[in-house]
Design brief:
Elements (H helix, E strand, L loop, with lengths): L4 E5 L5 H14 L11 H13 L4 E6 L2 E10 L9 E8 L8 H15 L4 E7 L4 H9 L3 E12 L2 E11 L11
Parallel strand pairs: 4-5
Antiparallel strand pairs: 1-2, 2-3, 3-4, 5-7, 6-7
Length: 177
Amino acid sequence: MDEPVKIRDAREADLAEITAIYDEQVRNGTASFELTSPDADEMARRREAVLAAGLPYLVAEIDGRIAGYAYAGPYRGRPAYGDTVENSVYIATWARGRGLGGRLTEAVIERCIAAGKRQMIAIVGDPANNASVRMHEKVGFKVVGTLKGVGFKHGRWLDTVILQRALGAGTSAPPAS
């Protein structure tokens, strides 16, 4: 990759580009199972919820443009899941194939370890999304299962691949909290 990439915290000013990246995936892809794209206000609310939970919301910037974004959110709402997070990563169409997904995911992992999280889950929509599965495996995730036909989008039933990665001490010690 020739252009210098800056991985940094997402700012409010980035939300228009983040919303556009996500909109393209909702309309044309299978990484998200949403059928209607959220507007910028909803994307801002989602970002604030991630930050309020003390979790990272990052962007990759190339030449002043947002090339992708990634964040970790709570895996589930019940208290026993409190040390487990779920990652999400989306790359702009023009920036795909440059390793940005891995770089963003590694940065999210580092931040989650620093926050004391112990497990990270990735749910990849549509197993045909081999690039996402491979990227997650390169940064230490293992495939732990496939849910068959759990979503219907673009006129077809879609599976999801579930991957998992231990963070920090993983399950070798009780949580600090």
